[in-house]
Specification:
single chain, 165 residues, four-stranded antiparallel β-sheet
Amino acid sequence: MGLFAKKDPQKLFEGTDFTVTRVLLDPPRMAPLPAVYLDEPAQRWAVKMPAAAPAIFAFSDIVECAVVESGDAETTEDIDRREFAQAIISSPARATRVNAARRGYCLGMGVAIGVKTEQGVSVLQIPLANQELKKTSTLYKRTREGAEEICNEFLAMRDQAFNQG
């Protein structure tokens, strides 16, 4: 398939009984983001990470769903410049999160889905943005709205399975 050819998501599931009836998330080509497909009559969903085989789950496997941000307000704390310099040396990533949160930024956003597996409950994270987003920007608001819509879809799938089960 060429770079600009139309995508047929069903080709990803050749050899399985998964039938794509709806696409919940379809990132642009070459984007390092996952795609999410639904097989609504069978009450199943699949996530396809780039360069990986699709993982198929049942609606009933969904335990919980939440929108998550990197650099949330909980990482903010009042520290002086000297303490901040010490924090940078001891944990640069944490210092970056604290600084971004103080300036009204989140460092990324996604949807976290609690999924039942053979090992218990695992968290599947679907990243939607992996760059700094100013919390007052239109891009942040649109990304947040999109993340909440996706999360609501997952919760509706879980509830549908619960009500029929």
